Amino acid sequence: MPDQHEVIDGAQLVRELRLGERQAEGPLAVFPIFANGSEGAGDDDTAPRRRRPRYITLRQALAEGRAVVTEVSEGGSVPELRVVNKGDARILVLDGEELRGAKQNRVLSTAILIDRFTTLVVPVSCTEQGRWSYASREFAESEILAERQVRYAMKTSVDAAVRSGAGVHADQGRVWSEVEALHGRQGTRSGTSAMRDSYEAKKNDLDRMLAAFPLVEGQTGVLVLHGARAVGLDLVSRTPQYAELHDKLLRSYAFEALVRGGEPGDRPVAEAFLERIAALPGQRFKSPGLGWDVRFEGGGVLGSALVYRGHAVHAAFFDVGGASGSADERPPQSGPSWRIADARERARRRQAH
After folding, report:
1. What angle do CA 160, 242, 302 make, to 5 degrees?
2. Neighbours of 217 (CB within 10 A)
3. What is the pLDDT of residues 116-175, one digit of tens each?
4. Helix (H) or strand (E) holding 32
5. At what angle do helices 172-186 and 148-164 cross, to 10 degrees?
């Protein structure tokens, strides 16, 4: 069982953060996030608890040949992939990080910390509905993270599944619908309904927008406002690893600003979002990898934190359509997906026997 250090709430998380100066372009305002305190220089295996756990990004692991990602079998399985960590460093993958190749492109359904020298089957969602044939035997890093609304749709269904006891399962139909809606909003097309094709079509526009949001020394996260609304927050516990993920995360948030206007919000909006997070208790579930998946919900906020050795290695929070949110971004009210319902029925039968 975990000790008390593996249990965090929103207030503990927010206390560890401070906001930097606002960056703005078009309808977007971005506040860099910094961690209070130092990271510590030593390896966490023998260091005091205050030292943040060490890990590398999926991008680095694949680029250096430290990891291999494949289908789970020759026939493949849409909601699962196999990751082999061949190296002596833990690997962090974020929810929404895309892998391309094999039988179809996928995104990770939740943030996972993969242990050293470990083979792990990880939960994923498909972001390329129109292909189920091998483009390569191994997956490559896609250099993109799911667009915010695609990622949000996946996160709401995963959160419902985890809380119901069904494990980490995304509503694949909803993910596909959001990818299709993304192409519709952006006026892009894909022969295989691939999310990646929309990113590639809009790359120049996204690059121009991202120039307004440069990485700041010591930055470990972002809090993003679209107009007068705080749409989301992402943080990573170590500055070098966040630096590798900075552009990828910002593209995810910036995509919708290409087609939606508004005046960028200011610091009080960002601070109010942090206050909403700070008011939330966390509910802990075992992560598919190392550590604990702590889930947060309430006050118009949905979030999660991957906690390992008392530290939030990664955290992401989204506005779920509070007072200023649009109805189409609120969690669906039609009930759980078939996987959740099926898991509940299995649990009921076990209790009956």
Report:
1. 20
2. 8
3. 999 999 999 999 999 999 999 999 999 999 999 999 999 999 999 999 999 999 999 999
4. strand 28-35
5. 170
What is the dihedral sign for C-alpha 214, 224, 144, 36?
Answer: positive
Whole-prediction pTM value? 0.87
Q: Which of 98, 44, 60, 39 is nearest to 236 (CA)?
A: 39
Runs of H (alpha helix) within the chain: 10-15, 58-63, 148-164, 172-186, 195-201, 203-210, 239-254, 267-278, 338-352
pLDDT at 261: 87
Nearest to 35 by CA among 59, 12, 54: 12
Radius of gyration of the chain (CA): 19
Higher-pLDDT residue of 335, 286: 286
The two structure tokens encoding residue 263: 């005046």
Domain boundaries, the chain: 4-54+147-352
**DSSP structure class, residue 128:** B
Smallest Cα–Cα separation from 85: which of 125, 52, 120? 120
The Cα–Cα gap between 114 and 91 comes to 5
